[in-house]
């Protein structure tokens, strides 16, 4: 995500761990919102913390057009946050494709074949407009 921002004038004010839990997502987002009342965006690298950040934004009474929230995984409360207009987007991964490519790589490795160090199983941007395609 940070590499994708390269070249943009962005001031990152926090990079706190959430252990991929909604509870820590709420706590971290509350702390960020309190310390930075003009915060413009939050990115959560996991679904539950994104849902937690959405709850923190809602609890703080921040209008959805005043902050951008982007999550990752399209799970665990993100559908509700997208529907409510609190979360703007998330990234979906493809677990079945991950499993397929992982088993394929395992079989090739066992056979002594070369296996690439990076195997891309794909990802897609999910918004309220297209989320039905990812359910």
Give an account of the 3D structure.
- The chain has 135 residues and is an alpha+beta fold.
- The longest helix has 16 residues, at 95-110.
- The protein is elongated.
- It has a single domain, classed as Rossmann fold (3-Layer(aba) Sandwich).
- The protein has helices at residues 22-35, 47-59, 78-83, 95-110, and strands at 41-43, 68-70, 90-93, 123-126.
- α2 (47-59) links the parallel β1 and β2 (68-70).
Q: Helix and strand layout, with pairings?
A:
Blueprint: H1 22-35, E1 41-43, H2 47-59, E2 68-70, H3 78-83, E3 90-93, H4 95-110, E4 123-126
Parallel strand pairs: 1-2
Antiparallel strand pairs: 3-4
List keywords for this structure.
Rossmann fold, elongated, alpha+beta, single chain, 135 residues, two-stranded parallel sheet, two-stranded antiparallel ribbon
Query: Using DSSP, what is the number of strands?
Result: 4
> If you compute it from the alpha carbons, what radius of gyration comes out, rounded to the nearest whole angstrom?
17 Å
Strand order of the largest sheet: 1-2
Task: Summarize the main sheet.
Answer: 2 strands, parallel
**Which shape, going by the Cα principal axes?**
elongated
CATH architecture: 3-Layer(aba) Sandwich
Alpha plus pi helix count:
4
């Amino acid at each position: 995500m940070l590499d994708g921002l390269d070249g943009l004038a962005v001031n990152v004010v926090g990079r706190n761990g959430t252990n991929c839990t909604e509870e820590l997502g709420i706590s971290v987002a509350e702390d960020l919102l309190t310390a930075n009342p003009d915060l413009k965006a939050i990115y959560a690298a996991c679904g539950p913390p994104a849902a937690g950040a959405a709850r923190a934004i809602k609890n703080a009474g921040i209008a959805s057009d005043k902050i951008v929230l982007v999550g990752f995984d399209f799970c665990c409360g993100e559908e509700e946050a997208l529907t409510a207009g609190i979360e703007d987007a998330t990234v979906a991964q493809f677990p079945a494709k991950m499993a397929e490519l992982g088993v394929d790589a395992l079989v090739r490795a066992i056979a002594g074949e070369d296996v690439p160090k990076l195997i891309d199983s794909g990802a897609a941007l999910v918004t309220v407009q297209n989320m039905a395609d990812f359910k």
